């Protein structure tokens, strides 16, 4: 069961990455794949993302093709119990709330809250890891994008 799902993810990643690269000139006027060498180009991150998706999909597909299906991969489907569906819908709802919260209170604070709330939903309850991650990771992302890469992130009422 897991083997087929992983192969589907690999195919989807390659497909989306290829679509990003093919649609680039239509989405960003004057953009072409040569812009990968110019970090100030608006096409730099879409090209980087598309290439990363393609490479990741190929790597996952190759690994699964070499490894083949294993008995350990034949687990009960996620949706057999109602708990799996409820958890999936809860995470989806939380991500929708997060999208609105980014604009209202800012990326850093809303990301901190997202990490704190979503970790237990994903059955991760180690507070020694969750709390520092929730405090440090959003600030690292902020510094990387705002200060190093000069890409503005959404700012809200708090931060």
TrEMBL record:
InterPro entries referenced in this protein's UniProt entry, alphabetically: DUF1468
Residue ranges crossing the lipid bilayer per the database entry: 43-63, 75-98, 104-122, 129-145
Keywords (A to Z) from UniProt: Membrane, Transmembrane, Transmembrane helix
Keyword Membrane applies: yes
Top-level division of the source organism's lineage: Bacteria
Ranges for domain DUF1468: 14-154
Pfam families in alphabetical order: TctB
Protein name: Tripartite tricarboxylate transporter TctB family protein
Phylogenetic classification of the source organism: Bacteria, Pseudomonadati, Pseudomonadota, Alphaproteobacteria, Rhodobacterales
């Amino acid at each position: 069961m897991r083997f087929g799902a992983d192969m589907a993810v690999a195919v989807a990643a390659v497909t989306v990455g290829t679509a990003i690269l093919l649609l680039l000139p239509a989405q960003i006027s004057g953009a072409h794949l040569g812009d990968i060498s110019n970090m100030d180009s608006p096409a730099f991150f879409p090209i980087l993302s598309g290439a990363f998706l393609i490479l990741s999909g190929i790597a996952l597909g190759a690994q699964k093709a070499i490894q083949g299906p294993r008995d350990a991969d034949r687990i009960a489907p996620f949706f057999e119990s109602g708990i799996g569906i409820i958890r999936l819908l809860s995470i989806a709802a939380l991500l929708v709330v997060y999208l609105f919260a980014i604009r209202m209170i800012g990326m850093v604070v809303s990301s901190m809250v997202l990490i704190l709330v979503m970790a237990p939903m994903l059955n991760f309850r180690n507070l020694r890891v969750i709390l520092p991650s929730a405090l440090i990771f959003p600030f690292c992302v902020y510094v990387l994008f705002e200060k190093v890469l000069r890409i503005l992130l959404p700012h809200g009422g708090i931060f």
